[in-house]
Amino acid sequence: MPDTPNAPYEGIVILAPHRELLDQVLDKWSLAVLNELCERPCRFNDLRRAIPAVTQKSLTATLRRLERNGVVERVVVSSRPVAVEYRITPLGKTLRHPVDVLLAWAAEHMPEIERARARFDEDVPAH
Amino acid sequence: MPDTPNAPYEGIVILAPHRELLDQVLDKWSLAVLNELCERPCRFNDLRRAIPAVTQKSLTATLRRLERNGVVERVVVSSRPVAVEYRITPLGKTLRHPVDVLLAWAAEHMPEIERARARFDEDVPAH
DNA sequence: CGGTATCCTGCAAGATACTG
DNA sequence: CAGTATCTTGCAGGATACCG
Predict the structure, then answer these.
(1) Which nucleotide is nearest to B82 (CA to C1')?
(2) Closest Cα in chain B to A94
(3) Per-residue tens of pLDDT for chain A, all 127 residues
(4) How far is residue B47's CA from residue A5's CA, in Å, rounded to a whole number?
(5) Which of A49, A13, A12 has its CA nearest to residue A32?
(6) Sign (positive or negative) of CA dihedral A6, A8, A13, A16
(7) Signal peptide position in this chain (chains A, B) (predicted)?
(8) Would an 8 Å CB–CB cutoff place B116 in contact with chain A?
(9) Positions in chain D where some atom is under 7 Å from a protein CB
């Protein structure tokens, strides 16, 4: 039935492009940026202040990637001096719900996960 | 109101441990492994066959990490020769819903995202 | 079969300096 | 203010060989 013969396993194949997309929008700093921009539009240095641990370079890269994927919009306000504002897009807003579901899961199960980690680290202290 | 004075911004602080957890359970190969183990218990080499692109080393690392976080269980079946089976845990099953929501988002908005990428890549061809 | 043990490489990401 | 340009480094992850 598949026109590509010997396809490995459909589930995994289907997964791949989504996996790549998640790498783009859920990477190290994206959640923090998205979280911030959902509150309000931000200037570049607003974001730096809100996320102290991020470097200029990484923040720029994160914003460009999010912009490229259409979840964030870069607005240049022509004033003196020029101001740049980042905003969440309508597409970006649709990402909020899935992320919230994920964070809710993390919050709910964190205690259980920490117990699992403690158990594992105790049983396998070192080889 | 916060008992920690000068906390940077609560949202981001709260985010950090969750961010770390997601790095553990949503990393490069975890989705594929989880997806597979939700279907059925698998032996090590079953997983290798189901996910051809993963190396032995990465698969081992992924399974150990998932096991440590309590979402996967490693069961040694004492037979001749010894067999090892990996199973999803009850905790692991609770991860399925959030992940499905995320994948549904990806599937639903993929076309829009691809348009955004095309637009971006055209407007910013190269510097 | 189900892994370790090594070696190696690319590249994500930090530090730092400079710019329109 | 909002970046770009370099340089450097840690380390995730691949390749390969070996083991109980």
Answers:
(1) C1
(2) B105
(3) 444 444 333 444 568 888 888 989 999 899 999 999 999 999 999 999 999 999 999 999 999 999 999 999 999 988 778 899 999 999 999 999 999 999 999 999 999 999 999 999 987 665 4
(4) 21
(5) A49
(6) negative
(7) none
(8) yes
(9) 1-6, 12-17, 20
